[in-house]
Amino acid sequence: MTTPVSEIIDILKQQADLYDTMLGLEKEKTPAIIRNDMNELNAITAKERKWTIEAQRLEQERLRLTAGIVVQNGLSRVRAGVLSNLIKVVTDAKEKQELTELHHRLRETLQELKLVNENNKQMMEMSLDFIRFSLDLLVEDPNENVVYQHPLNRTAPGPGMGIFNKRY
């Protein structure tokens, strides 16, 4: 017989598997960022979008079931979305053990996912900083007028002319 708690356990198992998949994708991103392989990054991002939508669906279902247990047991003071609170109110030892193990697995996976994601984010920001720096070198002074001027209207080539403005 399926109980609301066993349904939550099934959902948590699906969430744990899904986050493992997302962690694998995030780890695949790291070498793609290093190689600056935009095609692979786009493919990984498309997969992540799909899994993120599924993660949101599973989380909403888990919250709905957990809220039902809270209402059913008259536990209005317990925050329904917090898994550790659910573990406290479950009385079946086997279900409590499964919930505890899944709670630890999810917490560890999500912490690692957060760490890998943060590293990838820093690499992307460094890459963008390098691109901005390179563009600044080409233009020299980004605040200077970079709009084309007819050569006859220009007084004298100034020191602010970047590589694209120079004539050889």
From TrEMBL:
The keyword Glycosyltransferase does not apply. InterPro entries: FlgN-like (IPR007809), FlgN-like_sf (IPR036679). Transmembrane segments: none annotated. Keywords: Bacterial flagellum biogenesis, Cell projection, Cilium, Coiled coil, Flagellum. Pfam families: FlgN. Gene3D superfamilies: FlgN-like. It comes from the Bacteria. Residues 96-126 form a coiled coil. GO terms for biological process: bacterial-type flagellum assembly. The keyword Methyltransferase does not apply. This is Flagellar protein FlgN. It comes from Paenibacillus protaetiae.
